[in-house]
Amino acid sequence: MGKKSRDKGAAWEREVARLLTHATGTECRRQLRQYQVGGSDIDTSLPLAIECKTGYRISVTNALEQAEGNAEFGEIPFVWVKQNRKGKSPMRYIVIDEHHFLPMLLEFLRLWVTDAVSANAVFKALTEDKLN
């Protein structure tokens, strides 16, 4: 891999680390020695094994296998992709295996329904007080 490709990959890893830190409030940073000792591209206390990929042609299957190989027990492996496209803005997406995605989706929906019901109950209680 050439220096330009390494630099581009390192810049993408730093950007992903900044995005995760901002979104979660948990410090995330680029894993500097992943090429020497292995492991995820992003160093974080979150239970995630993150592989970052950028370029025109990305094998998401190979990248996901790499993330799964780097994942420790209890970590969710996924790939954060920035795919360049000629004449268009890069496409950014996350790839995750369905056996990790489905439980996360179910938990999200459970929380969403619980919060929606709670919010509706609070609203109803507040409006009933005003009516009486």
Overview of the structural elements:
With 132 residues, the protein is an alpha+beta fold. It folds into 2 domains: 3-96, no CATH class; 98-132. 54% of the residues lie in helices and 25% in strands. It contains 4 helices and 5 strands; from the N terminus they run αβαββαββα. The chain has helices at 3-24, 34-37, 60-70, 98-131, and strands at residues 28-30, 42-44, 48-55, 76-85, 88-96. The strands form 2 sheets. Strands 3-4-5 form a 3-stranded mixed sheet. The termini are far apart.
Keywords:
132 residues; alpha+beta; two-stranded antiparallel ribbon; 4 helices; 5 strands; elongated
Short description:
This protein has helices spanning 3-24, 34-37, 60-70, 98-131, and strands at residues 28-30, 42-44, 48-55, 76-85, 88-96. By secondary structure, it is α+β, with helices and mostly antiparallel strands.
